[in-house]
Amino acid sequence: MTEGVPAPALERPVALVDLLDRVLAGGVVVSGELTLSIADVDLVHISLRTLLSSITALRPADE
Amino acid sequence: MSEHGCWLYAVTGKAVPAPPRGVAGETPRCVEAAGLVAVVGDVPLDSFGQDALYRNLEDLDWLSRVARAHDAVIATLPTVVPIRLATVYRDDARVREVLEQRAADFHRALRRVTGRTEWGVKVFAVPEPVPAAASARPESGTAYLARRRAALSRRERLEQRAAEQARDVHIGLAALAVASCDHPLQNRALAGEHTRMVRNLAYLVADDRAPAFADAVTACDQRSDAIRVQLTGPWPPYSFAALEEP
Fold this sequence. Notes:
With 63 residues, chain A is mainly alpha-helical. Chain A has helices at 16-25, 38-43, 46-52, and one strand at residues 34-35. Helix content of chain A is 37%, strand content 3%. The longest helix of chain A has 10 residues, at 16-25. Chain B is 41% helix and 26% strand. Chain B is elongated. Chain B has two domains: 4-113; 116-241, Alpha-Beta Plaits (2-Layer Sandwich), CATH 3.30.70. Chain B has 246 residues and is an alpha+beta fold. The longest helix of chain B is centred in the middle third of the chain and has 34 residues, at 141-174. The model of chain B has no long low-confidence stretch (mean pLDDT 89). In chain B, the strands form two sheets. In chain B, strands 1, 2, 3, 4 and 5 form a five-stranded antiparallel sheet that branches. At the A-B interface, helix 1, strand 1 and helix 3 of A face strand 1, helix 2, helix 3, strand 5 and strand 7 of B.
């Protein structure tokens, strides 16, 4: 369900696909009680898997 | 016991004014430890707990709203290490613990991104010219094969030229940047693009070089006949904030 998720207060004109490249594959991964790794995300169903097919683990240039 | 979790948006160096509403409509707040400030939001676990998240992430509208809200909070913070979407802790004490355990890494990551901004550069192949309409007259098998071969080698040449020009673009832009990173290519349908993506790049650029960088992207786009070069951003440094593994 989608309750409790308002539209963000600040909306920059950002394409969703560019944003997902970054928020799902970029950003710092720290161990949480609940951190979705890309492998975890792969477990969710087909609609998202299609979306994620373009988003795999990030390869930072400095590592 | 708690029915709320602590959604982690970002880590920064000093306390910040209240950012806009967060992923659950909550007002994000700061948790401080080890000279660091974590920007967190209290999110109900019936929507943001593990099972609920798996369910909700299948809903593209939900994912889209949450991703945009996550980004909107991060984008208000001037110097920031963004945290990957869907990182949820039990309580503030656990967040403080992480700040303390990883303090050196977070401080190093903050130094790396201070005064710098991420820019995205997407490179697309210019579509092939539409082949001349097949003649209405019947064509001999040999003529057909020759035409097919010519079309294939024309396509190969175009693809090769696109790849070469993309490489030159990257070399030029990397010289203006502090660091760069290759994202996986985007799915054409999702990107809403009609042409093939050749590179999906991100650069970390010093803020005083941002105008020169943007000009260089425009120049690359105009100079290259086989590719289209598109700038996105500014972005929080999502692609360059990785901590070294502990």
